[in-house]
Amino acid sequence: MRLKKIHIVNPEKVKEQFYGKTFINSDGCWIWKGLLDRIGYGWFTLGKEDFKAHRVSYTVFKGEIPDGMLVLHTCDNPSCCNPEHLWLGTQKDNMKDCAKKERLRGMNRNSCKEKR
Ligand SMILES: [Zn+2]
After folding, report:
1. Terminus of the chain with fewer CB atoms < 10 Å: N or C?
2. What is the mean pLDDT of residues 4-17?
3. Which residue spans within 25-85 are E strands per DSSP?
């Protein structure tokens, strides 16, 4: 699946929106206070389009996301937008990372399929 490219016109304004729309929990995660989807990802409205908040965060704080790359969480918290908790990976990395974590928790690896 191709993801929409994120164009940020005014990075300072977008950063400010992140500070206003998140709170920091005890793990240092920036928890999104806005709209969440059923998997728990935050959604950020830029202009007239909605994007996953953690992808916007990565773009504005760390740089453009190369085509086909996913923005993954080290903290495993889908609503987290802390750029320090985000890393770039492929779908394969995501499944591997997820399977490893689920194994640690003794969970069924099928639950990884829906994550991205
Ligand atoms: Zn986090």
Report:
1. N
2. 93
3. 30-32, 43-46, 49-52, 70-73
**Dist. CA 74 → ligand 1 center (Å):** 7
CA atoms of 96 and 102, how far apart (whole Å)? 10
Cα(48) to centroid(ligand 1), Å: 27
Which residue in the block uniquely carries the two structure tokens 């990976």?
89
Question: Is 28 exposed, middle or buried (CB count within 10 Å of its CB: 0-12, 13-18, 19+)?
Answer: exposed
How many angstroms separate the alpha carbon of residue 82 from the centre of ligand 1? 6
Tell how far the Cα of 29 is from the centroid of ligand 1, in angstroms. 4
Residue 27 CA to ligand 1 centre (angstroms) = 7
Give the distance (Å) from ligand 1 centre to CA of residue 75. Answer: 5
Residue 116 has pLDDT above 60, yes or no: no
Per-residue pLDDT tens over the stretch 48-101:
899 999 999 999 999 999 998 999 999 999 999 999 999 999 989 988 988 888
> For residues 4 and 7, what is the distance between their CA atoms, to the nearest angstrom?
9
